[in-house]
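INFO batch 0412 | record 1 of 1 | parsing
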Amino acid sequence: MYAGFGAVGKRNNKLDIGRIKSNPIGLKMSDWVTINLLPVLYCKYTLVKSNLVYTNERKKIMSKKEKKGLNGRDLINIGIYSAIYFVIVMAFAMTGLIPIMLILLSSMIAIVGGIPFMLFLTKVKKSGMILIMSLIMGILMFVTGMTWMPIPFAAVTGILSELAYRGGGYKSIKSAVLTCGIFPLWAVGNYLPLFLQREQYFADRTSYGQEYIDSVMNFTSNWMFFVLVIMTFVCGIIGGLIGKVLLKKHFKKAGIA
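INFO prediction complete | emitting tokens
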């Protein structure tokens, strides 16, 4: 009987020794699986984390590039508002057959064009948009029969407008109104041939009649150019203030105060 118990004890001892050798610290099978999988899981976690960091950094870089450069939406806005502004310009240009209206042309454009231009400024958050629109106006004047002079003049006024609006961080209503006063000065460039190439200018308009030519000459003494600049600037400010009132909700939405 005791021999039987001894045999069982020996057998149990062998099992215990085997278990101790294979699992010296007495862990369960699930614990061993966890321990063996931990390095693999940690490697996967590190890889996923590094990929997420790389992706986030890449998104930040792309976002910075988009903020710095103009994107498709910016160009579309430039195109839309340039078209609207040009329609206003051409509508007033038709009144240029009346001598006094020819002199007031840039001032009228400044007031009426100031309203859509102020709306355009709510879309401007990057450098270059105002300059491009100004150049488009100068180029369109050249295409529609004016000389090349409005183009460089539009470039100068466009740069000044950019600096004025950027000075307010694209969020200042005062800078927006000031920009609205500077921007329409591109239209004064249309008068340059009238003052710098006077004989050629009137020679090309003999079909308008001598009475028309005499009237325009009486209105356009050399000092009148500077008066036109001042008048256009003041009328641009007026147009900006009108736009500010009419488009108050749009400015609030754009964060411009």
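INFO post-check: Residues 2-62 form one domain.
INFO record closed
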